[in-house]
Amino acid sequence: MENILRCLILKQQLKISYEQLSFHLSDSMSYRSFTRLAAHINPSKSTLQSTIRRIKPQTLENVHNVLSQHFFKQGESKGKQRWILSVEHYRGLTLKIVDQTTRRVILKEKVPSSEKTVSLFEPHTDIIVKGARDIQYGHKLNLT
Prior knowledge:
By secondary structure, this protein is mostly helical. It is 61% helix and 7% strand. It has a two-stranded antiparallel sheet with strand order 1-2.
């Protein structure tokens, strides 16, 4: 049940269709991690749609009430601390991306790929060059 609710939250947060949700769940390790889906589970658009639509409004209201009580008990200060840490983290990444874009586009500098951040939400993503012009983004694996 938690996985289904997390899929619903992700869909609502990103404001995407079930088809897009299915794609993102198969494509992004961050989204898979958030939804806590097992590696072998790749839900289709129709599976996501039929499963999420089975959640009753009363269930969502109950989840909302439980979470509200939990965060109220936890106190505002912890929530603010987390928010501040998150804002600081993304502020740093955003400033880095703005800097590299300014250098590359406005100042016409060549920015080494080791200095580039190509994904705000997955900053560890690598630039993978295959052939002369075939550029992909992802993670390099070395199997020995």
